[in-house]
Specification:
The complex is a heterodimer of chains A (324) and B (321).
Chain A (H helix, E strand, L loop, with lengths): L1 E14 L2 E14 L3 E5 L6 H8 L8 E9 L2 E2 L5 H7 L4 E4 L13 H12 L5 H14 L16 H12 L6 E5 L7 H17 L3 E6 L2 H7 L2 E6 L2 E7 H6 L4 H8 L39 H5 L5 E2 L5 E2 L12
Parallel strand pairs in A: 3-8, 3-9, 6-7, 7-8
Antiparallel strand pairs in A: 1-2, 1-4, 4-5, 9-10, 10-12, 11-12
Helix pairs in contact in A: 3-4, 4-5
Chain B lengths: L1 H28 L4 H6 L6 H10 L6 H13 L13 H36 L4 H15 L2 H15 L17 H39 L2 H8 L4 H26 L6 H6 L5 H10 L3 H29 L7
Helix pairs in contact in B: 1-13, 5-6, 5-8, 5-10, 5-13, 6-8, 7-8, 8-10, 10-13, 12-13
Classes of the chains: A alpha/beta (324), B mainly alpha (321).
Amino acid sequence: MKILEIQDLCVTYIAGEKRIKAVDHVSFAIDEGDSLGIVGESGSGKSTMAMAMLRLLDPRYTEITGAANYRGENLLTVDPRRLSELRWKDIAVVFQKSMNSLSPVHRIGEQFEDIYRVHEPKASKKEIRERVEKLFAMVNLAPRVYNLYPHELSGGMLQRTSIALSLLFHPKILIMDEATTALDVVTQGQILSEIKKLEKSIAVTRMMITHDLSVVATSCQKIIVLYAGQLMEFGYVRDVLANPRHPYTEGLVRSFPSLHGKKEELLSIPGSLPDLSNPPQGCIFAPRCPYATDQCRAHRPEPRHIDDLHVAACWRVKGGIQDA
Amino acid sequence: MKKYLLKRIVTAFGIVLFVILLNYVIIRLAPGDPVRIMAGFDNPSQELMDALTKKYGLDQPLYVQFWRYITTLFKGDMGDSYLYNQPVSSLIFERVGASLLLSGVSAVLAVLIGSTLGLYAGRHHGKALDRTFSGVAYMLNAMPSFWLGIMLILIFASTLKWLPTQGMVNIRKGYTGWAYVVDVLQHMVLPCATLVAVQIPTYFRITKSSVMQVMAEEFVTTFRVTGMSERKIFNKYVLKNALLPIVTVFGINLAYVISGSTLIEIVFSWPGVGVLMYRSISMRDYNLLMGVYLLISISVAFMMIVVDLIYAWLDPRIRYD
């Protein structure tokens, strides 16, 4: 069953005269229980997409069109009161900079309490504390963290705190925005395996925003590759990473070392992101693409189906059904 | 914490001592001679001048004078004023209340009004009221306090005759009880308004920028995405985080509460320490000047400790061990 369906999502940042298309006609859907990795280099619109879905962008400086249907309700148009209800109870987030994701001058327990009471106003202190300590145990945190201030914790502990906070109401969708990026590889590995273990005990659909392909490879079922705000490829991780159909995905895969298999030279993708306030005509990746033809430079390719799920926005993908 | 406090008090004591020495040297290095001023400029007699020099010990070498000053100071005696022929301590004591009243009330009003407006402007940045406040704050900031004081006197005292022009009480009436309180309050309105008006912009801008900075912090986004109401986020989390810089500025201003309003005290003939300081400077009244400076340095040192303690109480990241 589809839990979240993004349709034709566009996000444009307005900065004075400039209009920057940060997310450009992105569509995809995920099922309940899925784990989706959203990858792309910095500035590709990964976080913007999540922020837009949650309506966290300042409407004075952004223009959002399209739809983000969560179980039949469009998050982009649902009325603010309903949105407040959905926030955290249904959709929770773990942010990248967990160092700053809590107030530095209030105790962690106090902040958990206030957040819990947003949705359960009558909850007693004791009840909340029991719930939070259970969550702390799940993410390997000592109960005493409840009485500490954020600065008294290490980066890894703070990240665990953020994860515990996100699980406060057993959300249906958990968005992890570069949640492990700032951590050392050992802690990152620990946290990833804890998340996978958690997922076995609680039903949650996870969206993982990252620029680290290895994180996606080890912890997600499906993957979206974004480039300059546009969807390049979408499909099962095993299909997309093993057999990338888009030249950009191919480039990304080749720029990561493989632990097993033969040693290959790592290749980077030459060039950098185009100016999004003045994007090139045709395929957005064409200026950096080794296979680009005149057709690519003149016309933008629509995402094309390779099979039921696997989609790539490239003229090189032949056959299949054309899809908007 | 206790150890820290003790350490701070000891350091503060050392600093005050050093400031006394520094002040003493600087005042004496400055040109001007109290004896000549006391003796009068028209044909002063040499005998009178010699007698005065001897009376106040000014004939001794500077280090002897300083040693004598410091030893009597430790006995609690700040010496006598040349000008008033009274003990410095009683002169200051008589006037410190008036200064504290005027500057203290103004400082409190200014921080309350300035930061309240700043909170609003920071929260509603870019809206019409924010722009109005910011414009007015800019104007007030550019205004010299004495000029504003004179203008207020001109308008509300001289022309409209709503309020008294100067002083702290109406000497001719000799009010007592409630009538006295009301009289003082009436005299206070204009100087207080002037002081508040010139201090508001500082608090306004500090608070506004502090609020805007805190509102852009990640944790505000966290709270928003949990569904917490904007009001709760602002009143509980943004407020406490934004408070710290205001405390700093308020503390520094309070430190100068005794002497900071000199200009305004002069404009309104307010019988405070500021006027005393001004007169002692122009008359080279060494002992009185030293006394006033001593009081200022003690109050600065004291307030800095208080501010640090408030800081530690507000911000858990600051702990003194």
